[in-house]
């Protein structure tokens, strides 16, 4: 039986939040922002939503 991969959660640092906001302002898109922050697109979208930041590319 295959072993289940353990989920590792990392806290959001001030630098992470700053980067998220600046890339969102540049309309970088969720994929690029999540890759830059080394986080999943889902985690990035949830944090942006909690901060009230729009990730729209339009």
Write the layout of secondary structure elements.
Elements: H1 14-25, H2 30-37, H3 41-51
Helix pairs in contact: 2-3
Number of strand elements: 0
SS strand fraction: under 5%
Dominant shape? elongated
- How far apart, in Å, are the first and last alpha carbons? 46 Å
How can the largest sheet be summarized?
none
**If you average the pLDDT, what whole number results?**
93
The amount of helix comes to: 40-55%
- Pick out the low-confidence regions: none
Overall SS class: mainly alpha
**Rg result:** 13 Å
**Count of individual helical segments:** 3
The SSE string, one letter per element, is: HHH
What does this protein look like?
This protein has a domain at 14-51. It contains three helices and no strands. It has helices spanning 14-25, 30-37, 41-51. It starts with 13 loop residues before the first helix and ends in a 7-residue tail after the last helix.
